[in-house]
Amino acid sequence: MEVVGRDAVLDDCAILPDGDRFLVFSTDMVHASTDFPAGMSDWQVGWMSVAVTLSDIAAMGADPADILLAIGLDDPSRLRPILEGAKECCDTYGARFAGGDLDCHRELTLVSSGIGFSDHPVRRAGSRVGDVIGIVGIPGRAQAALEGFPAYREYLFTPRPRVEEGRALARSGVTSMMDVSDGLLVSLSDMLDANRCGYEITTSRIPGIEGIPGDVSRDLALRGGGDFGLLFTCPPEILPLSIPDLFVIGRVIAEPVVKVDGRPATIQGYQHRWDDGS
Amino acid sequence: MEVVGRDAVLDDCAILPDGDRFLVFSTDMVHASTDFPAGMSDWQVGWMSVAVTLSDIAAMGADPADILLAIGLDDPSRLRPILEGAKECCDTYGARFAGGDLDCHRELTLVSSGIGFSDHPVRRAGSRVGDVIGIVGIPGRAQAALEGFPAYREYLFTPRPRVEEGRALARSGVTSMMDVSDGLLVSLSDMLDANRCGYEITTSRIPGIEGIPGDVSRDLALRGGGDFGLLFTCPPEILPLSIPDLFVIGRVIAEPVVKVDGRPATIQGYQHRWDDGS
Fold it and tell me: What is the pLDDT of residues A243-276, one digit of tens each?
């Protein structure tokens, strides 16, 4: 289905020319039955509801500006800690928490919307054969927390959007970028959708999660969602970059396929589509 | 509570300086159990989900630009008509439907977010004693459809945001403005919150709804929500304006109270507050 138009849904944000710069604009829904793990506080719910949108803005390499929050509230007592968590997340990353809409709902449902600005937003499309594939952040830690490694709960409960790192990557001349909140393999598949080339990664280059056996760690990284890392491509000659937690994990290839250790990958994980396949 | 800040929640949109103009930014949640009347089609659900945000942008006198839609979908077959209705509403009012976020939800929940631009956005604050109070649109027709007058179903099912009228009012020099989607009395109360003056209306000046007895029509107009009219104040000397469906219904007074036919009004209707009263 092409109601929205393919171009409009290929990036983490919509892009709009704004004088001599660009405005980026994103929205994300989170709700109780699918997005808030057991043990997450209302303050963390508020934080996360904003962090998901800030991560989309970060993935364009943009400066976040205003955030709005639409809240469908199941219990009035939850409002204050949710707002405080949302505000703290905005403050931490230099965004303004500018209000929103308040409603009652049987299931706690939060939708944040955000705008940001960039001179040169980085899109998902733009990868070039010969580029290297890089990530920022150690993938799989949020999923590890879900699967029995409580030491990594902070990555699940207060995910940190890579706003500063996104800006630095954009300034450095990366050719394509997105966030990896849906897991590394799904994100590589999304990159494939947006480009005419392919992606080959080498699992031995993916940083291991401390205290977790290598094969488990590798599996968590490939399919685990909830981390707000960045996935990007860039010409090898711009490396190294002085960005913490940056790892080169592969290269862009001509064949339009995702390969893991030389073999075509089976994409698992969270699937999300605007179309119905028709 | 002041987590968000009083200024941020007094207008239909957040306002952000953007070069030599202003960006306005709004979000609205609608969901099945409270916002979609019996008989509303999915196409109309999509239309309305966008119209609520376009009405907020219209109330600032701004030009709508991009709309995003976060969809929590209870049934995949509803996606296509919802997207088509949303797109049609965007197209009708000159906005771009720029994508959004798709999720599964037990209860169909839609949150639209929109940005617009204006050289001189009109805020709720700004009313001056001596101004007249005007409305655009015949209020109460959506409520009439809910209460047994099916002839007015189009006002409930495909509400029309007053985008062109809002722009014209802003250009004409109105001093304050908001939309009346929550009913005339609630909207006057919201104006009161944002200003240091009061509002006195004369019910005989409110246009009657054709085919409905005068006292019923008056009651529908005062408390009925769902109409996307505009409420504004302006100096009397700028009238008349060549805007259809414009009616002068009262005047701005010094005493900070809402009066109806000379008596302080009891505010009924939809209540919505970001604070918890503390």
Answer: 999 999 999 999 999 999 999 997 754 444 444 3
Q: Are A23 and B28 within 8 A, CB to CB?
A: no
Nearest CB neighbour to B98, from listed A14, A104, A106: A14
Distance between CA B99 and CA A59 in Å, rounded? Answer: 17
Peptide bond preceding B64 in cis form (omega within 30 of 0)? no
Count CB atoms within 10 A of the CB of residue A124.
Answer: 23
Name which of A7, A29, A272 to mutate to probe chain B: the one with the most chain B Cβ atoms within 10 A of its Cβ: A29
Inter-chain contact A18–B14, Cβ cutoff 8 Å?
no
CB atoms within 10 A of CB A56: 30
pLDDT digits (tens, 9 = 90+) for B117-174: 999 999 999 999 999 999 999 999 999 999 989 999 999 999 999 999 999 999 999 9
Query: Mind giving me the DSSP string for B107-164?
Result: S-EEEEEEEEEESSPPPSTT--TT-EEEEES-TTHHHHHHTT-GGGHHHHHS----HH
Q: Domains along chain A?
A: 6-118 (3.30.1330.10), 132-264 (3.90.650.10)
Task: Tell me if B151 sits within 8 A of B85, measured CB to CB.
Answer: no
Which residues of chain A have a CB within 8 Å of the CB of B274? Answer: 79, 83, 99, 102
- From the list B73, B254, B271, B91, the residue with the least C-alpha distance to B187 is B271
Both tokens of residue A140? 């799989």
User: Which amino acid does the sequence have at A164?
Assistant: E
Q: Is A78 on the interface with B (CB under 8 A)?
A: no
**H or E stretch covering B73:** strand B63-73
DSSP-derived pairing of the beta strands B246-253 and B198-201:
antiparallel
DSSP string across A98-145: EEEEEEE-SS-EEEEEEEEEESSPPPSTT--TTPEEEEES-TTHHHHH
A 7-36 residues with CB < 8 A to B: 8-9, 14, 16, 18-19, 23, 25-29, 31, 33-34
Q: How far is A206 from chain B (nearest CA, A)?
A: 29
- Please indicate whether, in this complex, the C-beta atoms of B101 and A4 are within 8 angstroms of each other: no
Distance of CA B126 to the CA centre of its chain: 18
Asked if the C-beta of A277 comes within 8 angstroms of chain B's C-beta atoms, the answer is: no
Q: Assess: ipTM above 0.90.
A: yes
> In what order do the strands lie in the sheet containing B246-253?
B176-179, B230-234, B132-136, B246-253, B198-201, B258-260, B263-264
**Cα–Cα distance list, A137 to A162, A186, A187, A189 (Å):** 9, 16, 14, 19
Q: Give the whole-angstrom CA distance, residue B278 versus residue B276.
A: 6
Residue A50, helix vs strand vs coil: helix
**CB-CB contact of B97 with B128 (8 Å):** no
